[in-house]
Amino acid sequence: MPKLMKRADIPAFLTAISAGNPDPKTELHYKTPFQLLVAVVLSAQTTDVAVNKVTPGLFAVAPDAAAMARLGEAGIGPLIKTIGLWRAKAKNVAALSQLLLERHGAEVPGEREALEALPGVGRKTANVVLNEIFGLSTMAVDTHIFRLGNRTGLAPGTTPRAVENQLLKRVPQEMLKPAHLWLILHGRYICKARSPECWRCPGAAWCMFKDKTPVPSGKKPVRR
Q1: Catalytic residue at 124?
Q2: How far apart are CA 2 and CA 207, in angstroms?
Q3: 160 in any annotated domain
Q4: How many C-alpha atoms does 13 have within 13 Å on its Cβ side?
Q5: Which residue in 142, 192, 210, 219 is the catalytic one?
Q6: Which one, of 77, 50, 130, 45, lies nearest residue 68 by Cα?
Q7: pLDDT lower than 50: segments of the chain
Q8: What single string gives the DSSP state of each residue in the chain?
Q9: Cα–Cα–Cα angle for 100, 105, 106, rounded to 5 degrees
Q10: Given the residues 6, 9, 31, 124, the one annotated as active site
Q11: One domain for residues 118 and 160
Q12: What pLDDT sits at residue 4?
């Protein structure tokens, strides 16, 4: 495990990887809080790209909780069957839509406990919704953030919750909300799982990963 990144270096590291993106947005496509909630539930163990291919058709038929509940599991399934775990996700989306109608007037609640009580909604999904829709400084630790937290020394931990707790303690409060997406996007496009592109990482100077990948032949390193 890499050494712990110096707390004093964290703002510089995050500023570097933000790449001039002070107000990042999720790459999931949505128009309403309900649609984001559904999209995040669908994104479990599936790429955002795959989810964005099925949600236009799904939301055209069922744009809100009432329509989704009417569509039901049997109607949702065929519209999302190209993504992983589609049967379980169809069941959860139908059930959570019904509960939104029964408990929350068809609106997405802004409280963690209420969100996590919905089928298919765990802590990570709740954190995404609370961050993206309600503007809270939450940290949804997905595979990218878990990897970066450990690889860079920013927030090492053996579980997603441990990494989340470290990030909440170590990232400056004013940077917490955007840092969630800065880290996801950085992990998705630069600090990749199998072959991190350290040679073009603007935050490499502060990263504690010792086995940084060299500059490939014909490529130019990022100037820092």
Answers
A1: yes
A2: 9
A3: yes
A4: 23
A5: 142
A6: 77
A7: none
A8: -PPPPPGGGHHHHHHHHHTT-SS---SS--SSHHHHHHHHHHTTTS-HHHHHHHHHHHHHH--SHHHHHHHHHHHHHHHHTTSTTHHHHHHHHHHHHHHHHHHHTTSPPSSHHHHHTSTT--HHHHHHHHHHTT--------HHHHHHHHHSSSS--SSHHHHHHHHHHHS-HHHHHHHHHHHHHHHHHTS-SSS--GGG-TTTTT---SSPPPPPTT--PPP-
A9: 50
A10: 124
A11: no
A12: 95
Considering the domain architecture, whether residues 127 and 144 belong to the same structural domain is answered as no
Residues 19 and 71 in one domain: no
| Residue 116 placed within a domain | yes
Instruction: Report residue 168 as tokens.
Output: 């909440």
Structure tokens at 113: 């406990």
| pLDDT at res. 29 | 97
- The closest alpha carbon to 129, from 113, 144, 145, 143, belongs to 113
d(CA 16, CA 139): 19
- In the chain, how many domains are there? 2
pLDDT reported for residue 214: 87
Q: Tell me how far apart the alpha carbons of residues 43 and 125 are, in angstroms, rounded to a whole number.
A: 9
Which residue range is the domain that position 148 belongs to? 7-23+139-200
Q: Is 9 a catalytic residue?
A: no
pLDDT in the model for residue 61: 98
Tens of pLDDT, residue by residue over 148-182, are 999 999 999 999 999 999 999 999 999 999 999 99
Tokens encoding 136? 């809270």
pTM score of the predicted model: 0.90
Q: Kindly state the tokens that stand for 212.
A: 């940084």
Task: Say if residue 119 is in the same domain as residue 151.
Answer: no
